[in-house]
Amino acid sequence: MALLEVKDLKVRVEEREILHGLTLTVNEGEIHAIMGPNGSGKSTLSHVIAGKPGYEVTDGQILFKGEDLLEMAPEERAAKGVFLAFQYPVEIPGVTTMNFLRTALNAQRKARGETELMVPDFLKKVREVSKSLNIPQDMLKRGVNVGFSGGEKKRNEVLQMALFEPSLCILDEMDSGLDIDALRIAADGVNALHSPKRAMVVITHYQRLLNYIVPDIVHVMSKGRVVKSGGKELALELEASGYAQFEDAA
Amino acid sequence: MPAVQETVERVKRIDVDQYRYGFETLIESEKAPRGLSEETVKFISEKKNEPAWMLQWRLEAYRRWLTMTEPTWARVDYPKIDFQDLYYYAAPKPKKTINSLDEIDPEILKTYEKLGIPLREVAMLEGVEPKPGEEDPNRRKIAVDAVFDSVSVATTFKAELMKAGVIFMPISEAIREHPELVQKYLGSVVPTSDNFYATLNSAVFSDGSFVYVPPGVRCPMELSTYFRINERNTGQFERTLIIADKGSYVSYLEGCTAPQRDENQLHAAVVELVAHDDAEIKYSTVQNWYPGNSEGKGGIYNFVTKRGDCRGDRSKISWTQVETGSAITWKYPSCILRGDNSSGEFYSIAISNGYQQVDSGTKMIHLGKNTSSRIISKGIAAGKSQNTYRGLVTAHRKATGARNFTACDSLLIGDKCGAHTVPYIEAKNSSATFEHEATTSKISEDVLFYCIQRGLSQEEAVGLVVNGFVKDVLQQLPMEFAVEAQKLISISLEGSVG
After folding, report:
1. Neighbours of A8 (CB within 10 A)
2. Which of chain B's residues have a Cβ under 8 Å away from the Cβ of A75?
């Protein structure tokens, strides 16, 4: 079943059109990779799906579970199951990670009409998940991402993904700033979350990440459009020949 | 609309409705004639049944006040106050001695109930003990003194405190019952000639709280005073005097609210603290006077002199303030570090929104040897407000080994507000170590979006970020009030969230 349908999406940022009619369908349980050079619009797509302010959709449609996503406030989208793992997770001084996780989880549950999770249940859940991701307990007591290494920040993103149980995870350049070991830990975390109901959209420049998170479908973006889609072998092809061949196609 | 822009828009729309304490209680009151003269001063003194020395003290202050002019150095702007157009005394009628809560006008009790202040806790004194299992062991007892306009209407837990030797009563009663203590300490920290507003207060103060903790006693509960200005055109001039004798400890909290009115109301209080050898005073304020409406109309003018004297060796005074209300705030809780090895602390959260103007900070005056002080100030400016930290740290010639650490952080929400930091630092001996850190930042678009993407609403995101920003200071508040203050911060900033 189609989880996410992006249809002929056109997006402007300050008078300049970045996406020129992008179409993409992601079904439940699928892993999609979106590849493309800098400035091709990959991050714009992820921001528009998540509802970041500052983007103007001039045409097209985004359906999520059949509903019009663009009509929803960003926090509603989160509660409905859209999760964006940020390329550069922000630091929030003075707010402990634990407090942040609980506030966010309960905000989402409330929006869905569910009861708030009681503290013992919450703690149990966090402990389980953080253990599987190799996240030490003292990291949860520190301010959100304050003083975290690049690897810790990304693991914190995966931790939230595991806690909030979204149905669509968009990973924006998850590999940036990570060494091989940190990348493997984060990728293992992501793989553990893959399920027949949950889809992943992995945005990346490099094929490297796709050795760890193996996609079902690879899309190549150039100049605001998807110019080619194929199986995982397309990523290898790109690695060998580069993006230049697609510049003209766009 | 970008997230920050949206917050700014919401903040702009803040209306009087957002002030939860803006109701007025309709009760009859007895007022002094309008305006200020020797007659007014005599009228107040007479109403309070004061001894002659007290009247004399007031009259001297009044005569001194006539020769003084209003200070203008603060970064606040307001029309000139007509001091002859105010009422200087208002007392709820009927005016008779109140022996128990039942004799208090039920309207006043209702007011305090609406404010969530538990005057009824006095019932415990009358032998109505909670059933086993009903009492929450985590909830500490809090003794409350409630000041309504110019008089103190109720003080709870008085007898229980008396058992420990602690005196906690309205200052008007203390003047009659403990004249030796009052005469010894009143004006000894803030002299009658100190400044325009303190001198005015000395002439016309009508009530406030008095606390004396005897040597070696750790006050068994939190003490607190709630101030409420109810009457129209009435200035409130309360006077608080707290004395911690050798080796004693006391924690005190004041809360303030007022009805919302179109005209401005004047509040000019004086607080004096004295800490003897090895004594410690912790003084916390949650100030939530009416800040005025979205056009900047109305609101309290808050001109307050607060000063603590660390008179004894190894004494300690700690000020913690959460300032969210008032149209104008002019307030510098200070410490005179007179005793050797004494220490002073100032923790402040000052939030301004709408057209509020805050000029607040502290003075740490190092006189004794090896004295230390610590200042943590968090200013948050939103709307069209101006928020200034003004601080003085000074080490006297003989204050060898003086140490100070100051951190001033400002957070701006929107682009129509201002944050200013004006530190004055004077070291008159070479062994002093003073550190000063300051930061100013804007609430970041990216941080808000991160929170919102995780499911928080705009308001929740701002509340979370701001509460993180002020965390170091919130931790200094007594636990019960920290929770209250946290909510208050969210309310005063988010506008549309109630």
Report:
1. 12
2. 452-453, 455-458
